[in-house]
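#structure-requests
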Amino acid sequence: MLGTERLYTAEQTRALDRCAIVDHGVPGITLMSRAARSAFDALVDAWPDPGHIQVLCGTGNYGGDGFLVADNAHKRGIPVTVWQLGDASKIAGDAKIARDQALANGVDIRDWAGGILVGEGVVVDAMLGTGLGGDVRGDYAHAIEAINASGAPVLAVDIPSGLCSDSGRVLGVAVRADLTVTFIGLKRGLFTGEAGDCTGAVSFTDLAVPAEIYNEVATDCSRLELEPLLERLPDRPANAHKGLYGTVLVIGGDYGMAGAAAMAAEAALRCGAGLVRVATRPEHVAALVARTPEVMPLGVESGDDLEPLLDGADVLVVGPGLGQSPWSEYLLQRAAASGKPMLLDADGLNLLAAGKIFGETPVGNRVITPHPGEAARLLGITNAEVNADRFGAARALQQRYGGVAILKGYGSLIAGADEILLSDYGNPGMASGGMGDVLSGVIGALLSQHLPALEAAALGVCLHGAAADIAAADGQRGLAASDLIPEMRALLG
């Protein structure tokens, strides 16, 4: 895997649990005690003088974690109140052992019915976990709303209640935590979709389980880090020349949209392509030369004008400012017919969804980069359906169109034939025009430097997001796509 941290579904995490308990003889109560101690230690590290701790516990094992968090606090002399949700008589197994221990040690446990949270100290969410199948209702929904309205800092045990651990979707209502301490396996839903508004900082502990269990439970999903990906770019030899690093041809810039093609081309140039050419409307050539003289634009009126550029290109970037006119359609069709490695974005994706590439079949040397709205059109489903299952949508895109599919958004997903990679670099300042155009140019440049498509896509997405994080250091509002280009160049070194 290209990712450095494996990500797991809820079922895969439960399998890790079972492996530790059944196959390696680690008692469940031992794991629960370790989880509680890890959560408590993280709490006092984050809030050294909490004053008062309020713990909300459900009836499952997450509630068991919460009872033991409260027990740890009580032993330290920190005032603590536990609010019990659900029927306490249904608590069984390790969770009952934990509750009985807390009661025996004098922890104050109260029924939630009519409970009131005070807006001071720290709130611990230990109500619902990874097994949540539908929207949160009843007392649990009311408790979540009370937590969010309390104004107190919140620590979530394993996962914020109401957040789907598989998709990152909010199931009706979800706790908005300041810190989430997660155990055994990193849940993939913590890093994508709506998770960014719910998790706060994410801290992981493996609870000292035997390392062998991670070889016994397979996953095809992992989280990316920038530095190992940067190391995959080979050093340039002393006798390097531009021919070694490929020619990127950007095709786009219909009337009124020259800027998109210009930003894609500049990003490709600044991220290491040997040569960058642009096929665009003749009226835009002068502006592109004035912006970046190293880029070589050519005005094209027809496919015949495009053919020599296609012949000389190693990688095609099709879509930035392309439009959906007959001119746009014809250029896309000629580009697709060339068989050259191609990144397809923006209107290129819209034309693909509309069936404008004749004889469309899965293509192995193509990268597509849709946002959720474009993904919905490509899959013939709704935007809501894409966001409800981002991992499923990314896999479906790759299977339908081949190559590599990037589903953009918080926790961007990069789907190859055998794995899904997740990048959680980036910030809300990237919600501005032109960001996708810059990303297209970056990935085009990396493809031209002979990185395999999946590696180029993974590095490009991480580089793009990390540059945005640097560029937003002085504030996210007003972040422009072109602000990322010098930061990306610096990161590439």
